[in-house]
Design brief:
Shape: elongated
Distance between the termini: 61 Å
Strand content: 15-25%
Order of helices and strands: EHEHEEEEEEEHEEEEEEHEEHEEHHH
Number of helices: 8
CATH topology of the largest domain: Purple Acid Phosphatase, chain A, domain 2
Bound molecules: manganese (II) ion
Helix content: 25-40%
Length: 385
């Protein structure tokens, strides 16, 4: 009979992160990330997962709260059927002061602490391969050649590794791994960590491999739905699917509020757009909202009032105002002021560019004109651009 095992692949939880990007929510978010890890071990328990693969950066670093490490050990140790395998990454590399330094990890947990090695579980029908970062950087690939041909063909061979998928021969300081190395490895599945965005399940000859991405976001550089890969692996065959585990999503969304000229109108448009796009639990997410469109001349978008009102309805929100004022430039050009001179000269440049039929230049100058007008109103910050 074909030997088939059930696995769950996760990576890059970065437990213990400072999370300074979301002021006022950092402590809460740290706890939520630990709960997400608990959610993952609960899935393992409930769905009889044979092998939980943790592909590095489980912890943010060496100096994290001891109770977090204790909880992780407790959740892993409580699993009745699951073997967990951890391959330390560039953040939680194996060293004398790392969370992996002590030997009191539960018996069902394999922590890789050296170069590539194998742990055989013949009674479960699989062999786990893995390796550890020994420091922040790892310039030599940890995926060294092993004798694939000599391996027991009745065993499923799975590898867990933190590293950087690179093109052939390219350098990386984060454990370079190339497609030909993956192909030559002969492993049935390689569970990768390091890149926080998941890839599809990829193939290098008979070896399947993927980044699962992180199971829950930590900032606006980790957008959208996050989770793990779960499913079965057999000799030369995988059947894995994405499973959402994130408690909340980080989302960046542009909302066109053209024509709106009051706080209530903008609020309605924003909430309508968000509720439309992000489903019934839309209130739970972190939003970066970018307001666009043109609004009546003289109307100022009340950014802090809107932020306060939205915070009563959404978990977290920050607003960037990129709206443009509807201006009558021909009238402004008549003004006897620095602004008038500026508008006049910009309109001349637009005319010249139009005569040359240089449409790129026309739209570039128009955009510059609008930014310039906002500068006259004292509303341009360098960070907006
Ligand atoms: Mn990493």
């Amino acid at each position: 009979m074909l030997n088939k095992i059930k696995i769950l692949h996760c990576a890059d939880l970065h437990l213990g992160s400072e999370l300074t990007a979301v002021p006022g929510r950092a402590r809460e978010r740290r706890q939520e990330l630990l709960k997400t890890f608990r959610k993952i071990t609960n899935i393992c328990q409930d769905e009889n997962i044979d092998l939980l693969l943790i592909a590095g950066d489980l912890f943010e670093g060496a100096n994290i709260d001891g109770s977090t490490i204790q909880s992780v050990k407790e959740y892993l140790g409580s699993l009745d059927k699951t073997i967990a395998a951890i391959a330390p990454g560039n953040h939680d590399y194996a060293s004398v002061d790392s969370p992996y330094a002590d030997e009191d990890w539960p018996d069902n947990v394999v922590v890789f602490r050296t170069g590539l090695e194998a742990r055989e579980f013949p009674e479960h029908g699989f062999t786990i391969w893995g390796a550890a970062f020994a420091g922040t950087y790892c310039r030599e690939s940890l995926l060294v050649a092993t004798q694939a041909v000599d391996r027991d063909p009745n065993q499923v061979h799975v590898c867990v590794l933190h590293g950087d998928l690179t093109s052939e021969g390219a350098d990386s300081v984060y454990n370079p791994v190339s497609e030909s190395q993956l192909a030559d490895s002969g492993f049935d599945y390689v569970a990768l960590g390091h890149i926080h965005k998941r890839t599809p399940i990829l193939f290098a000859r008979n070896t399947a491999y993927a980044y699962s991405g992180c199971p829950d976001g930590r900032g606006f550089d980790e957008l959208g739905e996050k989770g793990v890969y779960i499913g079965t692996v057999a000799r030369g065959h995988v059947d894995l699917e994405f499973r959402r585990t994130c408690s909340r999503m980080y989302l960046t969304t542009e909302i066109d509020i053209s024509g709106a000229a009051s706080e209530t109108e903008i609020l309605d448009q924003v909430l309508l757009s968000i509720a439309d796009n992000y489903g019934s639990d839309y209130r739970d997410n972190y939003y970066k909202i970018i307001l666009t469109g043109s609004i009546p001349a003289g109307y100022r978008v009340p950014v802090s009032q809107l932020t306060d009102s939205l915070l009563e309805r959404l978990h977290f929100v920050k607003i960037k105002n990129r709206t443009r004022a509807e201006l009558d430039y021909d009238q402004l050009a008549q003004e006897a002021s620095l602004r008038g001179i500026y508008v006049r000269r910009m309109l001349e440049r637009i005319e010249t560019a139009e005569a040359r039929k240089d449409e790129n230049e026309v739209s570039r100058i128009r955009a510059a004109l609008e930014i310039g007008m906002r500068a006259f109103e004292g509303e341009v910050q360098l960070s907006d651009y």
